[in-house]
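Support request from a user on the community tier.

User writes: "When I paste my structure tokens into the form, the page sometimes reloads and wipes my input. The last time it worked, I copied everything first. Here is what I submitted, just in case something in the input itself triggers the reload:"
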């Protein structure tokens, strides 16, 4: 009837539109209205069920408490979902929404767009989105008792959701079929983005509320990460930041991001770092990028490969053993001759990487990097130029010989 009346108003159309908008504003449920009350009730029921589940000891009581907790959690999410559709959506449609509400609806649609193509990610991301939405309101309420109770639930549930999201990415990277080959770079981006999001929102909250659960082990890494949150980051800074994120992930998400996936992530960063070194034109910047690459080699070999127990390829295992034995011998120089220790370590890393590049079946052209590596080896006395030169592809090339 309203639509018909609007069609026949003629010159009074603007007047009736104004009345309609006013009535709609009055009827829209707000945060302190019907939906707000319902969310408060569901939230209180959830927190009681969560606390009962946390405190349950016997198997029977724990199973019953878990069922009640799951039911309360489901009802709570439904109330939050209803709030988005009944309140925020109507406000946006009627141009009465705040910037916060507009942004909230935009994020809601971004999450729901995953439903058809990425259902597992959609399921986890939607829960995460709804919890974040209500958490903002809880933190702004100023009710200390409620905030304390909610933080316990929020951290616990968010830990589970982030682990599930990262596990889903790990499954895709570990997939040996071609289904995800073309989008693997995008998956790496998602992994690093998700890790950073967790550190900013959940780990920071854990530290603030004094929740231990392994936080003490990564305080140094967290403080290191914080240095990358100030100012504009260049490519080198972003690679270094992602190395820190991976280091933290090895302590917080061991099962969600297993060793095989962490190795793939490191290899992606190594590739990015190599390209940065060979593409950087300014000498001082190139040297900084090179120093970062050397540090990345050490992290990759010491923190990851040295902890690897099972190797699919016996040849790779034996090659790493030989490399590792040389590395340990070089480390003995650290206390007695630090300069020689640094020199020998760089030579080892460069030679090892040159070998890996030559063995890799990659489309990336690393010829400029190889030339740069050889110049470093000559400077360190690990390779020498011969007087004679030979013609290769129409160009004179200096003969090089590795020093034994």
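"...and here is what came back when it finally went through:"
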């Amino acid at each position: 009837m309203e639509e018909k009346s609007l069609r026949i108003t003629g010159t009074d159309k603007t007047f009736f539109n104004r009345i309609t908008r006013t009535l709609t504003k009055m009827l829209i449920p707000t945060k302190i209205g019907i939906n707000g009350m319902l969310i408060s009730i569901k939230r209180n029921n959830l927190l009681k069920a969560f606390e009962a589940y946390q405190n349950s000891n016997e198997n029977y009581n724990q199973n019953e408490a878990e069922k009640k907790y799951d039911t309360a959690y489901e009802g709570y999410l439904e109330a939050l979902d209803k709030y988005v559709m009944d309140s925020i959506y109507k406000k946006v449609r009627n141009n009465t929404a705040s910037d916060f509400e507009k942004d909230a609806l935009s994020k809601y649609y971004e999450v729901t767009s995953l439903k058809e193509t990425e259902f597992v990610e959609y399921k986890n991301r939607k829960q995460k989105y709804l919890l974040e939405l209500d958490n903002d309101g809880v933190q702004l309420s100023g009710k200390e008792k409620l905030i304390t109770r909610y933080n316990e639930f929020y951290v616990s549930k968010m830990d589970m959701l982030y682990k599930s999201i990262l596990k889903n990415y790990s499954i895709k990277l570990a997939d040996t079929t071609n289904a995800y080959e073309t989008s693997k770079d995008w998956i790496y981006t998602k992994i690093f983005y998700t890790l950073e999001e967790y550190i900013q929102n959940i780990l920071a909250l854990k530290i603030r509320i004094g929740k231990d659960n392994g936080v003490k082990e990564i305080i140094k890494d967290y403080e290191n990460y914080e240095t990358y949150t100030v100012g504009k980051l260049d490519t080198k800074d972003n690679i270094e930041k992602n190395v820190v994120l991976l280091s933290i992930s090895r302590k917080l998400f061991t099962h969600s991001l297993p060793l095989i996936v962490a190795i793939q992530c490191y290899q992606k960063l190594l590739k990015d770092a190599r390209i940065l070194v060979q593409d950087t034109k300014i000498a001082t910047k190139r040297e900084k990028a090179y120093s970062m690459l050397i540090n990345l080699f050490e992290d990759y070999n010491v923190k990851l490969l040295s902890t690897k127990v099972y190797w699919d390829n016996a040849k790779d295992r034996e090659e790493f053993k030989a490399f590792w034995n040389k590395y340990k011998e070089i480390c003995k120089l650290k206390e007695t001759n630090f300069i020689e220790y640094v020199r020998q370590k760089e030579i080892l890393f460069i030679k090892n990487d040159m070998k890996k590049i030559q063995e890799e079946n990659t489309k990336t052209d690393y010829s400029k990097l190889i030339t740069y590596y050889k110049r470093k080896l000559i400077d360190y006395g690990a390779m020498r130029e011969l007087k004679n030169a030979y013609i290769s592809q129409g160009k004179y090339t200096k003969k090089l010989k590795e020093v034994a």
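Agent notes: The reload is a front-end session timeout and is unrelated to the input. The first strand starts at residue 383 and ends at 392. The beta strands are 383-392, 395-402. Escalated to web team.
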